[in-house]
Design a protein that fits this description.
- By secondary structure, the protein is α+β, with helices and mostly antiparallel strands.
- The protein has three helices and eight strands; from the N terminus they run H-E-E-H-E-E-E-E-E-H-E.
- The strands form two sheets. Strands 3-2-1-4-5 form a five-stranded mixed beta sheet, with no helix packed on it. A three-stranded antiparallel beta sheet has the order 7-6-8.
């Protein structure tokens, strides 16, 4: 359990031979260390055997050595580096830059556009990097009336067609309370639904 929590708060951004580690949580482990160790061993001569198609799984006798480019990898604290200090390549392939967070969630980073600040843009440095678009979250709708005014989410609910189930206030009250407003089903778990 302890190692799961340590990895969950760990992460890094990899760019141009540098691992920018997320160190906001002092208990988080350094996920870049085993990667750097592996890459160093690979550069020091570890060579994976080459196989020929005609011989199946037997190593080829005369295989050319794989040339591995020597790169000196380094680590830095993510909080100590700004975008102004980075040398980014526009259009770098999606394997060149990487974000790894929560211990195992990996995203390719690609810089597709760079432009100068105009008079319409915020004029202070702290506003950057500037969020220009965010994918809207899909709206949930009530599992009974299908209206997008969800107020409750329930779990283990015998009146629900699915678990978890999303309810508007009216449908939830109509199905879960009697005329005196006493809860009919005390087995389910109901929570307020938040959209933030």
């Amino acid at each position: 359990m302890h190692s799961i929590n340590r990895n969950r708060n760990a992460g890094f951004i990899y760019m141009e031979g540098a691992f920018y580690n997320d160190t906001h949580d002092p208990c988080a482990c350094d996920l870049s260390a085993p990667i750097i160790d592996f890459l160093a061993k690979r550069q020091q001569g570890y060579q994976q055997p080459q196989y020929t198609h005609s011989e199946g799984c037997l190593p080829a006798e005369e295989s050319e050595e794989t040339v591995i480019e020597e790169v000196e990898y380094r680590t830095e604290d993510m909080r100590a580096v700004t975008f102004a200090q980075l040398n980014l390549r526009v259009g770098a392939s999606e394997t060149d830059y990487c974000l790894l967070h929560q211990g195992c969630c990996e995203h390719a980073l690609v810089v597709t556009d760079v432009r100068r600040v105009s008079a319409c843009d915020p004029q202070w440095k702290a506003a950057y990097p500037l969020l220009v678009y965010q994918v809207p979250l899909p709206l949930k709708s009530c599992c009974i009336c299908n209206m997008p005014a969800v107020a409750k989410v329930t779990y283990n609910d015998r009146f629900a067609p699915e678990c978890p189930a999303f309810w508007c206030e009216d449908c939830y009250v109509d199905l879960h309370y009697d005329e005196e407003m006493r809860c009919i089903d005390s087995e389910h778990r109901a929570l307020p639904y938040c959209t933030w």
